[in-house]
Specification:
Blueprint lengths: L14 E3 L8 E6 L2 E10 L2 E5 L8 E3 L5 E7 L2
Antiparallel strand pairs: 1-6, 2-3, 2-6, 3-4, 4-5
Length: about 80
């Protein structure tokens, strides 16, 4: 439920293959061998994976982390 209310737990999403994404886009990505569907946020403080549900804290992508964008969610 981390992406509710936009996406329901277990819902299938459509994505466009992409190795990069713009700030604010919802991405399918891998961070340290764990897959995520999250909103990508980056600013002067760093890069974060953000849930739509405010009950979940943002996940910071550190400099030593292995991070790859696989695609951007289109629907």
């Amino acid at each position: 439920d981390s992406m509710s209310p936009r996406f329901a737990d277990g819902q299938i999403v459509w994505a466009r293959k992409a190795a990069q994404a713009e700030n604010g886009e919802i991405v399918l990505c891998v961070l340290n061998e764990q897959g995520y569907c999250k909103k990508l946020k980056y600013d002067a403080d760093g890069v974060y994976l953000v849930s739509m549900n405010p009950a979940y804290a943002p996940i910071r992508v550190g400099e030593s982390d292995v991070f790859h964008v696989l695609g951007t969610v289109v629907g």
